[in-house]
Specification:
Order of helices and strands: HEEEHEHEEE
Strand content: 15-25%
Structural class: alpha+beta
Strand order of the largest sheet: 3-2-1-4-7-6-5
Radius of gyration: 25 Å
Keywords: Membrane, Transmembrane, Transmembrane helix
Largest sheet: 7 strands, antiparallel
Number of helices: 3
Number of strands: 7
Distance between the termini: 61 Å
Length: 173
Amino acid sequence: MILKGLGGYGWTLIAGFGSALGLGGYGVLNYLGKEQEDDSSPFLWSMTASQENQKIKFAQYITKKHISDTKENCQKWVNGKIENMSQSECKKLIQTNWSGNISLQPDIWIQADKESLEEALWEYFSSNSRTVERQELSKSSWTVNELICNRKDSEKYSEVNCSHKVEPEEDSN
């Protein structure tokens, strides 16, 4: 009897309330059922673990920004202190170290004196990733989240280039 007296507005309210409960329940289950992902997007990485580390004499970073913001982010360690580079200083560093199309360059480029490299890498990656192991940073290549990093040593400096993994496309045949 009560259901007969609801009328058009009553049924609309019941249907709306039921839909909201159903979709809300789905959203909660979907959110709780997923693991938190470690975001490896380098353009979100702008901070190091600390602002001062006396073990780092010299290091510099270029981190590419993506999509709408085409400016790169450059930082350097000098005598144990980190500082952001000016846009002109960053541009000069990019022109000196990267030739050609910036989109073909790595997502992260790090250069440091040999004594400072592992400490600079640790400062950079430990603040941005929970999956990096310190001993990995001394190898010639390693993976951090969705990035593949390769180390190259020269007489004076060591360089590390990190780029997103490229998944092979599946054959649709």
